[in-house]
Amino acid sequence: MEKGELKRNWIREELAYGVGALLYSPAIQPFIADSVAEGKFAWPYSLALCLEDSISDEAVDEAERQLAVTLEKLKRSLAGGEIQPHRLPLIFVRVREPEQIKRLEPVLVRHSQLVAGLIFPKFSVRCADQYISYMKELNEKSQHIIYMMPILESYDLADLRSRYHHLYEIKEKLNEVRHFVLNIRVGGNDFSNYFGVRRSCRESIYDVQSVSSILIDILTVFVKDYVVSGPVWEYFAGKEEDWKRGLEREVRLDMVNGFVGKTVIHPAQIPVVNRELSVKKEDYQDALSILKWDGKKLGVGKNQEGGRMNEKKTHQVWAEKIIILAKLYGVRSNENL
């Protein structure tokens, strides 16, 4: 099943991993529907129509009106065959605050077949109940489920005195509506801002240890039950393509640590993320072997290439994830790392 099929046909777990490269675009942009219809972005990708930081306070009303226009144009393009269902990206709307959901409710309900979910910035204990309440109301009125993707990036998570308490309290609140939670996002730039730091294109977020410690704590709390996506990478051009090598490295480190997916801010970043989300042939073969284990009395054995150990019990969860990623992003040869 391809990534762009209408969301109601997806298995929820695949949908969570299928967010993948999430391209942010200011919702006020008038050309985004045309760009989607014309296939201007590398496939696969998801699309976030942003009403928050990318929109000035004075332009919010205009951005909300343009959001409605964009969704209507996408709906017509889909109905008219200009966009095939399997080439429609997962579409998300990033709101500014809980109250904005109420203002957008008629538009979201009318286009619930298109809108995969809402993104909640600076999601914290203080605003969680209100967001969750509005999401329940929205889904009661919507013909198709609209998911939520909270972004954990608020200062109370940077503060060690409150971090662990708040993380587990947030998780408890989200667990109550787990069927609505598609993906947990993290805010690398917001956390960097708290410490007055910024990584270069030759450094990863994991080199900024004050920030990476927060991200790892978020991952530790949530990854057992949710897909957690890696932070944004803010470089997308340069003569020596250091930005690309830096992005490749950071996505590999994301994946090694347990993050899956990436917020991207430029179309050039999409194929880089997709390549790193694809599965190495050796990993794919090992995953199949683990899931179809025929070791009889043995629960451990060499992999097909004979260079590493596979263990049925301890590698089961990893193997299940690898098979989903292979289905969504493909398998690459071991030589093409």
Relative strand content? 5-15%
Q: Major beta sheet, specifics?
A: 7 strands, parallel
* Strands in their spatial order, largest beta sheet: 6-5-4-3-2-1-7
Number of strands: 11
Helix proportion: 40-55%
Poorly predicted runs are none
Quote the distance from N terminus to C terminus. 25 Å
In short:
It contains 13 helices and 11 strands. It has 337 residues and is α/β, with parallel strands linked by helices.
Question: What tags apply to this protein structure?
Answer:
alpha/beta, two-stranded parallel sheet, seven-stranded parallel sheet, 337 residues, 13 helices
Describe the structure in your own words.
This protein is α/β, with parallel strands linked by helices and 337 residues long. The chain is 45% helix and 13% strand. It is built from 13 helices and eleven strands. The protein has helices at residues 12-18, 32-37, 60-79, 98-110, 125-141, 155-158, 163-175, 188-195, 209-222, 242-257, 270-277, 281-291, 316-329, and strands at residues 21-26, 46-50, 90-94, 115-120, 147-152, 185-186, 262-264, 279-280, 300-302, 309-311, 331-332. The strands form three sheets. Strands 6-5-4-3-2-1-7 form a seven-stranded parallel β-sheet. The protein has a two-stranded parallel ribbon with strand order 8-11. A two-stranded antiparallel ribbon has the order 9-10. Strand 2 (46-50), helix 3 (60-79) and strand 3 form a beta-alpha-beta unit. Helix 4 runs parallel beside helix 5 (125-141), helix 8 packs across helix 9 (209-222) and helix 10 packs parallel to helix 11 (270-277).
